[in-house]
Amino acid sequence: MNRSKIIGATALASVMAASAAQAEMSIGGLFAGSIDDTSADVASTFSTNSIYVTYSDSLDNGMGVSLTMSLNGTAGTTNLVTDVNIDTGMGTIGLGTGQDSAVDGMDGSPACFSLNACGSALNANYNDGDTASGNSIAYSNSVGGIDFKVTRGMESATTNPVMSYAAGMSLMGATVKAGVSSIDYIAPATADIDPSFVTVGYSIAGLNLGYAVYDGDNGGEETQMGVGTTAMGMNVGVTFADADLATDVDYMRVSIGKGMGAASFGLDYTETDVAGTDTGDTDHWNFMYVVGF
User: Rounded to an integer, what distance in angstroms lies between the CA atom of residue 98 and that of residue 151?
Assistant: First the structure.
């Protein structure tokens, strides 16, 4: 190796060493599965099977940048998802294949206390805009105690770019969140919708209280109320939901969970009652387990 190559290699090693000293990297993983008492039989499934690698560093201008790559799978599929977040000092810009719609990232129900079954509305009538958004471009920031996020999806064969807006704040001890997605369908026969949500969570005297409303802007709305606490070293809670649809549906879910270090276990009992008929009424038991590192 000649002298110029030695100098070049030494300089490169110095730059890499300096960068490594400032950068941080972490790896983690998660497996979440369940055993369900379905109407036909008992089924064993898993909801996610993921490995996460996160790298963070600083740009030359002082901005922060982080990269997260996750290899995750659900039943029959495996996906590689990459997210890039750039902290500009005046908010964070999110790019990549895993950017959720702003609503999807904030509309989790504080009235739900299940180990691994808490999302938004229990009824599929509500659309959070995430699937229609595809890979979004995101901007998030915090101003005056209000955390907000705005995302713009990509145009697809069925929709124009989906705009999604969500914000959250603490108000007199309560955590309040709200958001709306604007889904504009290209097909003229499909009505455009602006689904929205509002959630409120509050803790008092060892009780966690939750309230949520999910408006599908398509003639359907779901309201949830719930209360949770700890008893005998376990997390317990009950959720009541009323889906106001063409045919109303009422839900009741009782949840019990226990954390045991790297693994957690939970049991849900969910009762579904369709108004005016026995068709569609169910009593569902779900045993869940989550292992992470």
Answer: 12
- pLDDT of 198 > 80? The answer is yes
Q: What distance in Å separates the CA atoms of residue 251 and residue 244, rounded to the nearest whole number?
A: 11
State which amino acid sits at residue 198. Answer: V
Buried b (16+ CB within 10 A) or exposed e, 195-207: bbbebbbbeeeee
**CA-wise closest residue to 248 among 279, 273, 214:** 273
Distance, in Å, from the CA atom of 211 to the CA atom of 220, rounded to the nearest integer, reads 17
Q: What is the CATH number of domain 23-292?
A: 2.40.160.10
| Domain spans of the chain, in order of start | 23-292
pTM of the model: 0.86
Per-residue pLDDT reduced to its tens digit, 106-127: 999 999 999 988 999 999 899 9
Alpha carbons within 13 angstroms on the beta-carbon side of residue 70 total 19
Asked if residue 194 has pLDDT above 80, the reply is: yes
User: Rounded to 5 degrees, what angle do the CA atoms 229, 127, 238 make?
Assistant: 15
- Average pLDDT for 67-95: 87
User: Is the CB of residue 224 less than 8 Å from the CB of residue 241?
Assistant: yes
Are 199 and 179 in contact, with CB atoms under 8 Å apart?
no
Q: pLDDT (tens digit, 9 = 90+) per residue, 39-72?
A: 678 888 877 888 999 999 999 988 999 999 998 8
Q: Tell me: the pLDDT tens digits for 241-265?
A: 999 999 999 999 999 999 999 999 9
